[in-house]
Amino acid sequence: MRIGAIEAGGTKFVCGIGNESGEIEERVSFPTERPETTMANVISFFRDKRVEAIGVGTFGPINADSSSPAYGSITTTPKPGWAGYAFLDTLKKEFDVPYGWDTDVNAAALGEATWGAAKGLDSCVYYTIGTGVGAGVYAEGKLVHGLVHPEGGHVWVRRHSRDAFEGLCPYHGDCLEGMAAGPAIEKRWGVKGSELPADHPAWEIEAYYIAQAIAGAVLLLSPKKVILGGGVMHQRQLFPLVRAEVLKILNGYVQSPAITQEIDAYIVPPGLGDNAGLLGSVALGLRALGR
Ligand code: ADP
Ligand code: ZN
Predict the structure, then answer these.
(1) Helices (H), the chain
(2) Residue 248 Cβ contacting ligand 1 at under 6 Å
(3) Which ligand lies nearest the alpha carbon of 178?
(4) Residue 23 belongs to domain spanning
(5) How many CB atoms neighbour CB 249 within 10 A?
(6) 215 and 284 both lie in a single domain
(7) Same domain for 262 and 125?
(8) Ligand 1 atom nearest to CA at 234
(9) Domain tally, the chain
(10) How far is the CA of 264 from the centre of ligand 1 (A)?
(11) Which residues of the chain have pLDDT under 70?
């Protein structure tokens, strides 16, 4: 089975071919430019690939309401040319196959539930902490959209007592993304996160913010696994800091051994590593085929 996959990011696009075993057979990557240029690259990659379905996991916000005429479009974004862009319609004109369409983080959550850290579970949340912060929600065996789709990067967080940083979110200032995304770390400390040592105070502050969002997600959604991906989470020392802070916030209230005894296996990195996004799009394509 040959499934086309598109991981559409704000800085780069990755296109690939995957199969039902969660293997990637081929992939290409190119920078995200204006939609006409970028989509021409996408279309030329898939031209002779004979795929049976295509899954798209994309930056957003997006229209994911299949009853809407604007289904399959990017809604609001500052990226030149992409606001209101009819992404899926452009592809449908070229390739007559079933399509899966979702946010990049919902796709990653599905990929992880299919082949990764949440394999065999019917729920998980997937956070990416990267250039932005986003959250995908898989619950009762389905990706959650609700009114629009989850926007878990923009929840409010309580400020750390030793953090005076004003926050970078253009909408909210000091929301989770504004305080904890990669660019916020860089602005707060004057160097990229990747250059800060593992014992730098930055990581305790970072974990404090991430843990608040996770505790909220645990209380609201009761996921069976919490997966943290994105560039910032390459700092592996964040995991024990985040887990400890989540335990402190929950304070014994959620009485599941998964949390009270085995939190090391509950809040985890992506099982699919940096393939979570692309394989998530493969999983979206498989679902579109009814698999
Ligand atoms: P994107 O979110 O654009 O898809 P990434 O998930 O790779 O891409 O996130 C990029 C962000 O993560 C940048 O702000 C970068 O500074 C930060 N980042 C990447 N690698 C690391 C690292 N090893 N440690 C800390 N921050 C990192
Ligand atoms: Zn925000």
Answers:
(1) 35-46, 87-92, 104-115, 176-180, 182-189, 202-221, 238-250, 257-260, 276-288
(2) no
(3) 2
(4) 3-104+274-290
(5) 17
(6) no
(7) yes
(8) 23
(9) 2
(10) 23
(11) none
